[in-house]
TrEMBL record, chains A, B:
It holds the Pfam family HTH_5. This is Transcriptional regulator. The keyword Cell membrane does not apply. GO terms for molecular function: DNA binding; DNA-binding transcription factor activity. Keywords: DNA-binding, Transcription, Transcription regulation. The keyword Mitochondrion does not apply. PANTHER family: ARSENICAL RESISTANCE OPERON REPRESSOR, TRANSCRIPTIONAL REGULATOR, ARSR FAMILY. The lineage of its organism: Bacteria, Bacillati, Actinomycetota, Actinomycetes, Micrococcales. Residues 30-122 form the HTH arsR-type domain.
DNA sequence: ACAATACATCGACCAATGTCAATCTAAGGA
DNA sequence: TCCTTAGATTGACATTGGTCGATGTATTGT
């Protein structure tokens, strides 16, 4: 078997060989597209006002809050709060339900936990 | 007992009364300072390049990677990668160790999981 | 001592983001 | 019908953030 080659210990199938300074791999890294998607989700969450909005919503027994709950507790203008709500809806963390004059925002079940899970696995 | 008052069901001790449109609370929301701190951590993570850096580092068997591992895999200039590394070190997700000519970056154990845990509890 | 290499820092630039005042829209109440 | 209220949208503005070229700083090899 003169063609048999002993691979360096740092080689893992499908992973390109590393530089001299590099150490062995235990697994492959996250795919660029996955990193993009996760970054988009995290970006939607990485604002103090938006985190407080999510927290206020999920603090309600029915996981639903109206905008007045938010304007009461956040020291931000109404348009700014409305902007943050839009960001969270677009990112898939909240849903909007209009009933009469009021808008109610609900937490999308599992959306936060999903991001937390993916993050912990990065 | 003419002084006894029946509190509305929406009242929870220490929580200010809600508007007419509001629903009952199950707990209190996150404190503003905690939201600030969590937002800072998440902001450090909410970039595709930085997520990939963390992933590449933790993909190594010893949870350590040199900068050349990163410049190989990320299509970004060396100063840009250096910038992202600084952000992650400042945020407490990575530590730097210089050995000879090379800089090695390691994952701070538990830092990612901690953020994920706090996030899931928001 | 000198050249080369690895990486950090600096300065500049453009894009993205958070904020608010002003305005618009729709739903209720008089 | 008209006024009021709740909340979304628009436009402008200042700030932050990602990127790179140029430069600085150690460290290694000759």
């Amino acid at each position: 078997m003169t063609f048999t080659q002993i691979l360096p210990l740092t080689d893992i199938s499908g992973v390109s060989p590393a530089d001299a300074c590099s150490s062995p791999l235990a697994r492959t890294a996250i795919a660029p597209e996955s990193a993009d998607a996760l970054a988009r989700s995290l970006k939607a969450l990485s604002d103090p006002a938006r985190l407080r909005i999510i927290s206020i919503v999920s603090a309600h027994a029915d996981q639903e809050a109206c905008v007045c709950d938010l304007t009461d507790q956040l020291t931000l203008s109404q348009p700014t709060i409305s902007h943050h709500l839009k960001v969270l809806v677009d990112a898939g963390f909240l849903t909007r339900a209009k009933r009469g004059t009021w808008s109610y925002y609900s937490l999308v079940p599992g959306s936060l936990g999903s991001v937390a899970g993916v993050l912990a696995a990065v």
